[in-house]
User: Which sequence fits this backbone?
């Protein structure tokens, strides 16, 4: 039999999204279901019930990651794993993360409907604290699973009220007894909304995600001289804010020279002493730079430093740039990328390859097993916003593609 163009049940998948969205509603049609809150517990309970109704066995690890397992014919083989996260931002949408978990569950329900057996077991996962809004940093559950983070450090993270991640896991009853640690996984797939506008702009239904961009963060300072705003003529000024503004325009130009391939953001800037009638003597700011390759990211770094040199000569203000974080690009496994592309093609869905601009649990899982992601469009590229929307048709297209890719790895019985 060919497993390639089986269709999931689109109505059932959409209805699950709408059911889940009732838990932890936001104030503007989205969701506020932050990790390890009472509402997160209710969302987890509902997911667990659905999985058990689909004949799966749910286990919880010591980080609260939930694994729903459908046995394989040879149950000692490593599982094909798929999923994402049910937690949301404080003003989050109904699809970010949720789509990846529910598409995985729907794929299993479809396999049940069609009586499909696989050699490898299938596991549907809900990772704890992907968002990181309540307990920063993000992607902690998959981070501990992959060995990137230490569990003790994760347990100690506090929210703004001083509650710890470990304490809250226990309070909502989701600190499980299975050790949270790497184990053999045949392949990992994650469905997610794009959270950007590229698929929608091109009218494509499926993003075949080949990896995640390299990223570098900086803390920057511009140093000038505080002077009286009314008495200091232009030639006597070393205005740090004017100098910083020139640099910010250069930073934007570094991005635009790279078309679609680069990202530069000054997300935070503050001038000191911060008085209306004093030329600022100091500006502190952040830079977030991203590119698909480390080489290009390094080239962007050189252009940034050259621009700062040039502006020092022009303005007399000092520029300091301190790298505060670097993250290597993630390159997903070619065999998983191929399986996703084949799945999209066999269903006749328009697709394009795409690099993710955002981090995902799949980045950590890429260290454990061959991994890749499936993106679908979301309206206007809006995400981390209650207005976030993905259409039932695109959700179904993503889940169909996921099912095809999973079955390619799980060895369907003829
Ligand atoms: Zn997400």
Assistant:
């Amino acid at each position: 039999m060919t497993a390639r163009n089986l269709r999931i049940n689109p109505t059932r998948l959409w209805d699950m999204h709408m059911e889940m969205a009732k838990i932890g509603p936001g104030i503007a049609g989205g969701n506020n279901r932050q990790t390890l809150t009472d509402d997160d517990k209710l969302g987890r309970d509902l997911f667990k019930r659905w999985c058990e109704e689909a004949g799966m066995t749910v286990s919880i690890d010591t980080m609260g990651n939930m694994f729903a397992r459908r046995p394989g014919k040879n149950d000692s083989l490593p599982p094909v794993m798929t999923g994402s996260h049910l937690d949301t931002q404080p003003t989050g949408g109904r699809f970010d993360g949720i789509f990846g978990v529910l598409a995985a569950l729907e794929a299993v329900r479809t396999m049940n409907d069609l009586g499909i057996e696989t050699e490898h077991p299938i596991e549907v996962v809900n990772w704890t604290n992907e968002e990181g809004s309540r307990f920063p940093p993000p992607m902690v559950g998959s981070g501990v699973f992959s060995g990137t983070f230490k569990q003790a450090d994760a347990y100690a993270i506090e929210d703004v009220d001083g509650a710890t991640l470990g304490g809250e896991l226990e309070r909502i009853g989701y600190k499980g007894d299975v050790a949270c640690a790497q184990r053999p996984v045949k392949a990992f797939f994650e469905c997610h909304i794009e959270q950007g506008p590229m698929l929608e702009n091109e009218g494509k239904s499926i993003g075949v995600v080949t990896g995640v961009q390299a990223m570098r963060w900086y803390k920057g300072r511009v140093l000038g001289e505080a002077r009286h705003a009314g008495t200091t003529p232009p030639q006597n000024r070393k205005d740090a804010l004017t100098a910083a503004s020139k640099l910010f325009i250069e930073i934007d130009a570094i991005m635009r020279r790279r078309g679609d391939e680069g990202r530069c953001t000054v997300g935070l800037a503050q001038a000191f002493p911060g008085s209306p009638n004093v030329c600022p003597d100091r500006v502190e700011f952040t830079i977030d730079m991203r590119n698909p390759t480390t080489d290009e990211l390094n080239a962007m770094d050189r252009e940034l430093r050259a621009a700062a040199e040039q502006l020092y000569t022009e303005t007399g203000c000092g520029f300091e740039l301190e790298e505060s974080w670097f993250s290597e690009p993630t390159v997903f496994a070619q065999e998983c990328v191929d399986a996703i592309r084949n799945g999209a093609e066999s269903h006749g869905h328009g697709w394009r390859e795409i690099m993710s601009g955002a981090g995902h649990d799949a980045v950590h899982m890429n260290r454990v097993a061959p991994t890749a992601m499936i993106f679908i469009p979301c309206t206007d590229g809006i995400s981390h916003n209650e207005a976030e929307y993905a259409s039932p048709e695109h959700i179904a297209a993503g889940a169909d593609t996921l099912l095809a890719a999973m079955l390619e790895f799980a060895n369907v019985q003829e």
Summary: The pocket of zinc ion is lined by residues 85, 96-97, 130, 192 (CB under 6 Å).
